[in-house]
Design brief:
The protein is mainly alpha-helical. The protein has a domain at 2-37. Helices cover 60% and strands 0% of the residues. The radius of gyration is 29 Å and the shape is flat. The protein starts with a helix and ends with a helix. The relative contact order is 0.04.
Length: 85
């Protein structure tokens, strides 16, 4: 009996996946209703080029700071782990 149920269930899934119209999710319906009354403003996909560098610093400075911190942690952990007897 379970084989027949599995076949019917598989058929139902194939039939549902092949549907021409699919109902939107609850979130999509909620956002559509919210935006109908109060549409969202335009949001740029990427920021303006002048706002990409924070405070005029280049990305190399940030990279050097991160690598310096990693090196300092490695040295500190090596010093803590070093115990002469």
């Amino acid at each position: 009996m379970s084989e027949k149920d599995d076949e019917e269930r598989e058929f139902d899934l194939r039939w549902a996946d092949g549907a021409e119209y699919k109902e939107p999710s609850a979130r999509a319906r909620m956002l559509a209703a919210r935006w109908r009354d109060n549409p969202p403003g335009p949001v740029p996909f990427r920021p303006d080029p002048e706002h990409t560098a924070s405070s005029g610093r280049s990305s190399w400075v940030s990279t050097a700071v991160v690598l310096g911190c990693v090196a300092a942690v490695i040295v500190f952990l090596g010093y803590v782990g070093y115990r002469p007897y």
